[in-house]
Specification:
With 289 residues, the chain is of the alpha/beta class. The strands form two sheets. The chain has a seven-stranded mixed sheet, sandwiched between helices. 42% of the residues lie in helices and 16% in strands. The structure holds zinc ion.
Length: 289
């Protein structure tokens, strides 16, 4: 290694890395109402449009920062899994897709797990990142969720999961499908320990994630207008040969039909979670002691 690779290159990398964090454009356009929003205003509003209330997609890092008291938490390392077990390739190699997503998100895979305080009470939070290959669930997400459930049991803390996913990671074939029963068992561990399992469904939550841990919460919360479903609306329409009703697969529709417990605006989400944790754990503590 010459001084060039050792000193010059890392520095260039840091500079490039920093550049990515500074937004090119300080104004964002709301994808729903097309109004312009100053980026700081959008940050304060937790990515909710101040004009029309549209909830924009958020990253796993943002979810963690918004959920824990004072934005303080400890992230845990998730178990390593076999990379690209099928040596899969479509238009691109799966290994390359993984690398691209890792570079873009600076995350190992589509799930982050952390613990800390929510409303003064201990909690474990797992958050999915849609930016990482559409939040798809492969072995890494499955392992991550099992680790989150184990941590919750170990700490006797509730488990909160933010979902955002296009479903199973098809590049891992049957291995990704195996994560459905695995994550189901993980949620069961939390329940058997008498701890609350709370799911926050965010836009979009579909496919194998909806068909497993995303729908098994003791309490099911969704963000306004979040798309939540298993198969896509067009596929269902073609199968049943019926026009689907207005707002089908949206949070409010699911709430009206009893599929979920509540639709909570992002600005009220942290307070709601804190209240739910207090309600579901305060009577349990003396009994457990
Ligand atoms: Zn808007």
């Amino acid at each position: 290694m010459s001084w060039l690779t050792e000193f010059v290159r890392p520095k260039i990398r840091t500079l490039l890395g920093r550049q990515q964090e500074v937004p090119d454009n300080l104004w964002h356009q709301c994808p729903k109402c097309q109004q312009m929003i100053f980026h700081r205003e959008l940050e304060t509003a937790k990515k909710v449009c101040p004009h029309c209330g549209h909830h924009m997609r958020a990253t796993a890092m943002e979810r963690l920062a918004w959920t824990f008291d004072n934005g303080q938490y400890t992230r845990i390392d998730l178990p390593k899994v076999v990379a690209d077990p099928l040596k899969f390739r479509d238009q691109k190699r799966y290994a390359d897709r993984l690398k691209e997503s890792r570079d873009a998100t600076r995350q190992e895979d589509a799930l982050l797990v952390a613990h800390g305080l929510v409303g003064g009470a201990r909690a474990v939070v797992a958050a999915m990142n849609f930016d990482f290959m559409g939040g798809s669930m492969g072995a890494a997400v499955g392992e991550g969720l099992v680790a989150a459930a184990r941590l919750a049991v170990l700490q006797a803390a509730p488990l909160i999961v933010y979902t955002a996913s296009g479903g199973a990671r098809m590049q891992e074939g049957a291995i990704s499908l195996m994560q459905m029963p695995r994550t189901t068992i993980a949620t069961q561990m939390v329940k058997e320990a008498g701890l609350p399992y709370i799911v926050v469904l965010t836009d979009p939550t579909t496919g194998g994630v909806t068909a497993s841990f995303a729908m098994l919460g003791d309490i099911q919360i969704a963000e306004p207008n979040a798309l939540i479903g298993f198969a896509g609306a067009r596929v269902i329409e073609q199968t049943v040969r019926e026009k689907l009703p207005e707002g089908f697969q949206r949070a409010e529709y699911l709430f009206a039909h009893g599929i979920i417990d509540m639709v909570v605006k992002r600005g009220e989400l942290t307070a709601t979670l804190a209240r739910l944790i207090a309600l579901t754990t305060e009577n349990r503590r003396p009994a457990a002691a």
